[in-house]
Records
---
Amino acid sequence: MAKSAVQKIQTILGVDSDGVWGPKSQTALNKEIGRTADANPLLAKIQKLLNVDADGRWGPVSQGALLDQFRPHTEAGGAQGFRAEASSFADPKDVRDFQRCKAQGKTDQQCFKVGDNGIGQFGKLTAQDHTPMVAIYKDDMIARWGSVMGAAHRIVNVTVNGRTIQASVEDRLGVAGRIDLNPAAAKQLGLTPPFLESDCVWSWA
């Protein structure tokens, strides 16, 4: 059986060529992207497979072409999208931990490492259980919409353990291969925070 483009890319990156683009594959790609500011011959090989300009410099066009490899349709009618770990954010414990950290006189950046203030980057209240919201890895935002702000309030499909919902992008995260779900999204998916679910696929709606 002929290898898919994703499998060929995984082979180039030296990761398991199972055809499933997950955190290990993206991390290996990110490592090559950050390896040099000059043209990277390995990235050029991948770009050639994706039928984009093989200049060895990875940008939104290359990442977008890669994302297009993950869009076969499922029975639910959406794109298969990206496999990711789904974790909780802006839940009551998250907010309490953030407030406790702030009470110790620490900075917001320090406190975001232990909790969440319940307000998304784009200004909406994420710490609630009536409107599903998510936080997406920043590079996925830039690849699809050209910038982090371009992804603000966009809708995504999220499937966890076979159950699918739609949610809006209201925050960003700095961890590849993960998507964060607010209390409302968790509630609709039947999840109780805090959690870390490995059986998750998400896609742009």
---
Amino acid sequence: MISWPAAVTGIVLAGGKSRRLGIDKTTMRWPPQGGTRTLLEATAGTLAQVCDEVLLVNYRGAHPLPYRVVPDRFVEGGSLGGLYSGLLEASHDYALAVATDMPFLSLGLLRWMLAQPRDFDVLVPVRDEPEPLHALYSKACLEPMRRRLEAGRLKITGFFEDVRVRYIDEATLRQLDPEGLSFFNINTPEDLQRAVDLAQRLGRAG
């Protein structure tokens, strides 16, 4: 059992189409050369170190994983629909949500976020813009999310105006994750090559 102010569910959005990358992000090996896990397993494994349970939203891979898979309640709802689906199924009042393709999540930053007083409905890092797929959500977000989804308004941060949002400023982020690698996504072949180069550099640095 993880010891935090209150138990938290981890959510990994695993239903993306990976069109630009051309490789299924949930089943690709990470790292591509010599990796023993998939990218999804690596991401979920990081969340499992800080969350009491981990849910995989809309995971369709044939390889079974030791996490509960939950269906997407809004098939055409994009990331907002996936987030809603995971939060709805979460066993706890708060859930930490990330995307599948984030291989450099910082445990230090995640632990800092989970240690904050729960006086918010959304705790979200901000760099140039908010990072809603690296954020902590309360179940108070469900009804505002549902209204947006049913109206076809799928911008993931659109419901923020209806809930209590606490933003993590860039100065705090630089202290906790100086290079900002937590927010690195693998969306294109160029991103994948950069991720491989980063993994090799970080591996050499220990």
---
Amino acid sequence: MLSVNTNSSALVALQNLNATNMQLSQTQNRINTGLKVSGPKDNAAVYQIAQNLRADLAGMDAVKQSLDRAISTVDIAIAGGQSVSDLLNQMRAKAVAASDTGLDAASRTALQNDFNALRDQISTIVGNATFNGTNMLKNGGTGVSAIVSADGTSTVAVAAQDLSLTGTTITITAGSTFTTATTAAAIVTAIDTSIDNVNAALGKLGTGANALQSQRTFANKLSDTVETGIGNLVDADLAKESATLQSLQVKQQLGVQALSIANQAPQVLLSLFR
């Protein structure tokens, strides 16, 4: 049946063209964004999963920042502790030299001055071993704690180590002097104890630093894995989308031509009235 009011062929052609245009728009959006699921309308379930994973990924970024701060703080403490250990070794050498019974008073006084200068450097180093407002070596210093889970519920802590002259790790006080060979020998014993204590404290800091670094390495791997998982869910295959785009563009052109042909069909009625 031919009718100027209703052209079923044109309606079908228009429906097909509209469907092609919708598919073309979807493909162009995937190419523009690089995503096959850019919103809940594309795939509600996948989008929800991806958003949850993105939240975890953001949490892992916070974990890495927390670990970086903690690692830097402990590294500063270790550097300070190593310097203190070196100073104690030098102080021991001065005390051993001063314990020589054949040493004259002037030489012993010179050694005492060097000893005092080295001892004072300990206080300077300990006081300056600060990162981001945290000092792990001073008397009453605080340890560090880093979050290691995306929800912030799990942490790793490293305890402070008091290396000040007023603490118990270093047994050499600010008033330690060797006026005789006997007092110098006693100070050597005290320094040996201090060296052992400082090295033990460094061992604890080193263990804590290794734990933090292990967590940092794991956080990187976990973050990369989650990011890859998100990509597997929502990323578009651009090679496939490019091929689909070309196919749809050809299909669109053919649809336009089909609609044009269908719209011309009612004109056949004019020939019946000639």
---
Amino acid sequence: MDTQARGGVLPSLIRDVLDRAGAGWDAIDGLAVSIGPGSFTGLRIGLSLAKGIAFAGDLPIAAVPTLEALAWAAEPTPGDVVWAVLDARMREVYAASFERTATGLERRTPDEALPPAALAARLDASAIVVGDAVAAYPDLATGGAHALSFETHHPRGGIVARLGAAILAAGGAADVGTLEPAYVRASQAELARRS
């Protein structure tokens, strides 16, 4: 099933989750959405649905950086440096580095799109690398960095929900009207239009 077809079933999946929890739409008091970087179409579909629910229910919404949520999936302990890395296609990866402190994850780099070789040169043996890019670009793990399997360490909704709840509790709700995906780079269509 392609991304657009999956987008059509998202509302019924949400209803199924609420039904299994024995809750209704009125039980929702806030939303968290993974904001990117990631698939251009997937981000637009997910964010559009979340914004629609937030607008219709007059609910606050938290924008959770995708790479930060992925870094938490590595289950780092204090002192660990985690690189969250997703395959951006077109011979690039989306990457960001975080350090686990006693109080949480501290961002070390901004989200960026770069060639895998450029990222590999920045990885040292003490780094933990998490994300699907390692399978696509095995050279990311050749410098001794500890690569985690994407099958066991992947983005999880529970992490996005926890991070979103913390954002909302701190008063960091996003403006539903202006909230947009964090693409990090231009799409192929945008690049073609520019040239």
